[in-house]
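Standup, Tuesday
Yesterday: got the pipeline producing structure tokens again.
Today: sanity-check two examples.
Blockers: none.

Example 1:
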Amino acid sequence: MSELTFELVDGRKVTVDVRSALNGGYAGRSQDDVAAHVAELAELGVPAPSTTPCLYPVAPYLVSQADTVPAQHGHTSGEAEWAMIVTDDDVLLTVACDHTDRDLEVHGVAWSKQAAPDVVGRQAWRLSAVADRLDSLTLTAWVGDGASWTEIQRGTLAELLTPQYWLDVLRRRNLLAPGTVLLSGTIPMHPGVDQFASAWRVELGDPATGAVIRCQYTVERLPEPVA
């Protein structure tokens, strides 16, 4: 189990023990966006899913607010997403980056989700506080090399299935309980940008207020195994 602490707009801090974690996949509202994401992954050798959207349960300890993500090789990368956190008395919304082992993903998306963490922000909004403008919230990601950043994803939450959609899914599956964390699935990447970077930064922005929630981490290669 993983413990997360979020700072809210009013300065209050909320601590959550993660008891259930799920990753949405192929979750665009537009079938064109879903097809684009399937094509992105197909270039990496990942077979297309038999149905969309998908929902992948992952180990709760994989949800993290870490600044560093260890990787066994150079073919891992992130995905810009939002995350929904169910607390004892509320639902929070924050930014997330679903880091994934792309080599393992070729053999099974569900397996690859277990091989790298879901990094989430340290700040959050109450879902009810932004419910009237969810579609206008922005999601942007950059990849870095230690010296500069290059934008790799940009869109709005209007491109993804809504938090309410996933709340209904959780309710039907008896997973709508305190400690549940769900990541939304991602938006298309810009073509021609190398996703296998040494750092990722993702921002969830609210144009109405100018507020931004971000997460950022470096990717560090593990030593070669002795075997």
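Example 2:
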Amino acid sequence: MKISGWARKRKRNERGASTVELVLYMPILMLAIFITIQFSLIYLGNQAASAAARETARVARTTLDRGQAETAGLEYTNRIGKGILEDVQVVVTPVGTQQVRVVVTGHAQKITPFVDPPTVTQVVQGPLEEFRADN
């Protein structure tokens, strides 16, 4: 079977096709990479907020001092979440007479300037600790 002249020209004209494909697919690839990185930063912000909430709850449960617990939570967040979690708020509230709830809220780091920073919230609740002397 003889290949016509048109088919030979067609084959030669495919030069540069991979460059065109790269130009078309590169924005999609970059978007996928940015989305992956942003979700990773949100996950990391969640982990930092969770650790801060656990530490704040530990201080609140043992000292029974709301102000001291909130201060400890903010200091802990500044140590472990610096650059990961921004605009952190720590709220300690008693739940009844036997428990305490800690809510840590902040914004995860963002990589795009035109999107609002994602909000991260972690809640920890636990019983107050009561120390009693042995009888």
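Quick observation on example 2: The two ends are 104 Å apart (CA to CA). The longest strand covers residues 85-95.
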